[in-house]
Every structure is written in C-alpha cells, then in structure tokens.
Design goal:
With about 100 residues, the protein is an alpha+beta fold. It is built from two helices and six strands. The longest helix is centred in the first third of the chain and has 23 residues.
Length: about 100
Amino acid sequence: MGLSVATAATVLITALISGIYIWYRLNSESGRRALKDQQSNLSGGIERTVSVYDVNGQLIKEYSGKFDIETDRESYILFDDEDGNRHMIYYTTGTIIVDEK
C-alpha cells in the first residue's frame, strides 16, 4: 500500500523545513549565535572570562568560569559564578569585556 499524496507532501515539506532550519543554524552567523545561546542554556553556561575595568583602563576585577550572563545592554551585566555568588556589575562608569571560549 502506498503513501497518499497528502502524506507524501507533508513528509516532503517537513524535511524541507528541517533542512532549511539546520542549514540556517550552521551556516549563518546569527544561527551560530542562536545555537551557542541554546547550548549555553542547556548546559549551564559557557566558559567565560569577565574583565572589569575602570574609566582609566585599569583592571578592577576578573571572573572566570562556566556561567550565563544577563544584561540590559545599557547599564549592567548579571551572572552567578561557579561558587554560587551573584555579581551585578554596572558599567556606566567603566568597561566590561566578556571573552567566551
């Protein structure tokens, strides 16, 4: 017994949409960023180093470990380090550099 035309069309459309989605995730920069965000959410963070500098460029503090970062993109970043300590850093008077591995 063969597949009906509607079933075959549904399978074909599903495969096409899945293929486009996978291609997008692996071959576009925004897709790679989205994939990295998803991996971070599912695995408890990404290995990062957060460096905090004052307005004169002097290093104040550096944090390293596997964690997620939340930000409003205007004034602060927030993260919990591997020891469970929460850090909220306001950068309106300095610079923060986040390096991801």
